[in-house]
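notes to self, project folder thing:

trying the whole complex as one job this time. last attempt i did each chain seperately and stitching them together was a nightmare. two parts in total, labels are on each line so i dont mix them up again. if this works i'll redo the older ones the same way
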Amino acid sequence: QSALTQPASVSGSPGQSISISCTGTSRDVGYYNYVSWYQQHPGQAPKLMIYEVSNRPSGVSNRFSGSKSGNMASLTISGLQAEDEADYYCSSYTRRSTVVFGGGTRLTVL
Amino acid sequence: EVQLVASGGGLVQPGGSLRLSCAASRFTFSSYAMSWVRQAPGKGLEWVSSISGSGGSTYYADSVKGRFTISRDNSNNTLYLQMNSLRAEDTAVYYCARAYPVPGTTNYYYYYGMDVWGQGTTVTVSS
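result (full assembly):
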């Protein structure tokens, strides 16, 4: 099972918006609406930011939003803040009843 | 506070075995699917295995199938990962994680997302 494809890094200035793409196949991202996004700060466990493509768990800022088109999902962060600097991972359920993660994207807030 | 505490990691020789545990507290453990996710040093997240709330269904990544066994003891609120035939490439921090309880649903499947994570336990496979 190949990992989902994410850009290695993205950057933005405080207040700007950025998007992180997550490209899969018709056997995972394109087939199910079970795409999740996680934020991980150094030395910490991941934190769920988005589930089922575009839903935010309670307590997650509405600056975080998710979407999907075909085999590609996206995470958008608006109004960038210094605390958003972290690694971000997407994941998807697959037709083989497994879960696959993306390779991760490092977000730098300039 | 809902909590997961992982333990059991350590240094093991190639070909050896190790059993990880994950103690859950302050939620109805048996209602939630649970998963193990690992992260090799300096690398990304890799899903390892998941188990349904009842323990009747289990799922594995190809990289560990046939070598690792996930199980749970709902009477003691504990998740396990038995790891056999360990390889150098199994070296990682292993996290246990709970399935997210999607509002409006009663079955919390492992693929909904993972909302509560343990602190991680480190497994090092080396001679």
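what i see at first glance: Strands of chain A lie at 9-12, 18-23, 35-40, 47-50, 64-69, 72-77, 86-93, 99-101, 105-109.
need to look closer tmrw
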